[in-house]
Amino acid sequence: MAVCANVASPARGPYKTGVRRREQIVQAAMAIFGERGFAGGSIRTIAESVGVSHATLLQHFGSKEGLLTAVLEEWDRQTVETGLTDVSGLDYFRRLPQVMGGHLANRGLLELFITMAAEASGPGHPAHDFIQRRYRRNLATLAGHLQEAVDAGDAAPLTTAQINVEVIIVTAVLDGIGLQWLHDPSTDMVHSVATFIDRTIAEWGR
């Protein structure tokens, strides 16, 4: 991939202020949606929490649904940065329990994502496109790391079709464990995920 020689100048003035304000609104919405859910978190409450008007908030996001998408994207970014930016192959899968553990302090956001994932199966839902993109990207990422493990000899040979099935199962199990934890907080989510990943990697090595 070619590296662009043009370096963008640092954001300044009104643009920089606008970017910072947008980030503040997203963070406030994450907290409020996480605590009250999408239906219970009003645009007015979010706007007031960062000292802007209802109209100003809508200028940044267009609608409550647009703000929801921004919140989900930020949650997704933070999830990846929790521990998945510097690993590859099987180590990527071994880091997943840590990532799931990061949700323990953000129950509301995990609940928001799982709720949206279930509700957004219909194309008319405001989060439909985001959820579709996220699952496609997540499956492609997992498949890429499993293929790396196969190529390196760290996993037994698997066809592309087999790899695709394996990562679908991994994704489904992690979502299911997260849902179980939401229903029963005594569920040891990290240990459960770690146990599943250890067994799965062992199976891949056969």
Walk me through the structure.
There is one protein chain. The chain starts with 12 loop residues before the first helix and ends with a helix. The longest helix is centred in the N-terminal third of the chain and has 28 residues, at 13-40. With 206 residues, it is mostly helical. It has 2 domains: 14-72, Homeodomain-like (Arc Repressor Mutant, subunit A, Orthogonal Bundle); 82-206, no CATH class. Helix content is 73%, strand content 0%. The radius of gyration is 19 Å and the shape is elongated. Residues 1-9 have low confidence and may be disordered.
Précis, in short:
The chain has ten helices and no strands. It has helices at 13-40, 43-49, 54-61, 64-81, 90-94, 96-101, 107-119, 128-152, 160-183, 189-204.
List the helices and strands and how they pair.
Elements: H1 13-40, H2 43-49, H3 54-61, H4 64-81, H5 90-94, H6 96-101, H7 107-119, H8 128-152, H9 160-183, H10 189-204
Helix pairs in contact: 1-2, 1-4, 1-7, 7-9, 8-9, 9-10
Structural class: mainly alpha
Number of domains: 2
- Kindly report how far apart the N and C termini lie: 36 Å
**Overall pLDDT:** 86
Largest sheet: none
Number of strands: 0
Calculate Rg over CA atoms. Answer: 19 Å
From the spread of the alpha carbons, the general shape counts as elongated
Helix content: over 70%
